[in-house]
Amino acid sequence: MSGKAIDPGRKYEIVDPANANNWKCQFCMEWTRGGVYRLKQHLVGGFRNTLECKMCPAHVKEETRRFMLEKAAAKKITQMMPEVDEYDVEEEIDCEASGSRNKTALKMPRPKGPMDRAIARWIYDAGIPFNSVNYESFPQMLKEIAQYGPGLKPPTMYELRVPLLKKEVDDTHAQLVEHKKEWASKGCSIMSDGWRDSVVQKDIINLLVNSPKGSVFIKSNDVSEIVKSSTLLFDMLSRMVEEVGEQYVVQVVTDNASNYVKAGKLLMAERKHLYWTPCAAHCIDLMLEDIGKLSMVKDAIKKCIYMNGYIYSHTSLVNMMRKFTKERNLHRPSITRFATSFITLSHYHKQKNNLRKLVTSKEWNNSKWPKEAGGKKVRTYILQESFWKQVLYALKLTGPLVKVLRIVDNEKKPAMGYIYAAMERAKETIVRAFNVREENYKTAFKIIDERWRCQLHHPLHAAGYFLNSVIQYDHREEVDCEVVENGLYACIERLVPDKETQDKITMELEKFKNVEGLFGCNMAVRQKKLKSPADWWSSYGNTAPSLKSFAIKVLSLTCSATGCERNWSVFQHLHTKKGTD
Fold first, then answer.
1. Which parts of the sequence belong to the DUF659 domain (predicted)?
2. What tens digit of pLDDT does each residue of 54-79 get?
C-alpha cells in the first residue's frame, strides 16, 4: 500500500459526469469550473480568483493548506527553484471552452507577522516617528518592494544622500513649477507659523504658500533674534512676498500675537495690493484655551485627563474598555492642542452609558482595577453625576467653536465663503443650547468677542461671503447690507489695481445678483450646495468673466495657517544636525 498522501481536492470534490473539468464542493454544494487546484483554493480561501468556501470545516481547511505547502516544497526541490518564503506556487489548470489548457502561477497568501516585525524593528532602531506610516509614500514603498520580489538590494547610504536625493529634488522642483502656474492664475496665500524648538532653544517660523493646488513648504527660518521685533518680522515677510511674487500674493496669514499684528499692518502699508489676515484657527484655539480655564470646564478636563492617563497606561484595561465602547477610543488627536481636549470630552459624553456599564460590570469587579486607588477614582468619576454635568456644560460652550475650527481648517473646501458669519452662528447655537440663560454663557461670550475682534468684518471675509452663491441666493438679506458691501468694494479696490477691470467687476456684479445667464441655469442652482464656492464659480461664472476671476481668487483662499503645523517634527530636523548626519 502506498504511503502517498491523498490529494484533499480529490477527496472533497464531486465531479460533473458530463464534464470532468467541472466540480462541486461537498460542503457548500457550489458548482465551479476549473482544475483540482482551484478546488483547493476554494477550500483554503484567501485567493483573488476563487471564492472561499464558508462551510468548509477547520480541519479540512488545515489539511488542504498543509498538503499544498508540502506539494510546493517538494516541487521546489525537484525543479531546483530559487528559494522563496514559506509558500511556493503550484500550477493551476483552467479549461477554456475550446479545451485549451492555460497554466497560471498563483501564490499562497503569506503570513504578515514576520514582515510586520521587521518593519517595526527598523522603525524602532532608526527612531522614526510612528505616524510616519501614515504618509502616502509608505504603502507605495512597500508595494514597490513587493513587486520587485526576492533579491532586492536596499539603497546604500551614499545613494540616499546623493543620486536619489538629487532625483527627489528635481521632482520637487518640477512640482513647484506646476504650483507657480496655479499662483499666477488664481493667486495664493503666504502662511506663517511660529513655534519654539525646546531641544535647541530656537524660535522657528515655517513659511508655506497655499493655493487651490495645495500647500508648498518654502523655508523654515530661525527668528530667535527678531521674533520680538515687529519691524524685523515685517522685513522677513516682505522679502517672502518678493520671493513668491507680489503680483501673485493675495494675503499673508500669521498668528495674531501683537508683534505679528504690527508687522502685518506694516506689510499692508508697504504692499498696497495684498492683505494681512490673522489665522482663524489660532484665534479659535485661544478661545478654547481661555474657556478651558473656567472652573467647571477646567474640572471636567482635569478629570478626563486623569482617566485617560490611567486607562491608557494599562493595556488590559484598554482592551476591557474597548469591549464596552464597541472598539471605540476615548481620545483622538485634533487640529489643535486645545481642540483635542474638548473632542476627548465629546467622546466621553458619547460613551457615558457604556463607561458606566464598564465600571459596574462583573468583569471590572473581578479584575484588579477596583482595588487600586486609580481604579477607584476612575469609577467614582464615571458614576458621578456632577462630572457629567460639567462635561455637558463644557460641550455646550465649545462644541460650536470646534465646528467652526473644522470649517476653517478644511483644505479641500476653503472657508473664505463662510467665515464671515461662522462665529455669529456659533454663538447663536450656544444661546439655544442654554435656552437663552445668559448667565451660563456671558463670560464665554466675552472671551469669544475679545479673541475674534481681529477677524471681525475683514474685507476678504466680507467679499467671500457676498460671492458665496449659497448665501447670495438663499440668504440674500445677510449680504444685502452696507457692512458686507463696503468690505466687498474695499477688497476689489485693493486686489484689482486696474481701474478698467474694477469697473467691469462692479458692472458684472448685477448679473450675479440678478441670477442672469449661466448663474440661473438649473445645474448652477442645483449644484451651489454640492460644489465648493470657488468650484461653482469655475463652472458657472462665464456670464461675468472679470468677476469670475476675482471670485475664484478670493474664494480659494485659506483662512488659517494650520497647514504650517502638520510636520513640525520634520521642520525640527532642519534646525539640528540630525537631518544631515
1. 155-303
2. 888 888 888 888 888 777 766 654 44
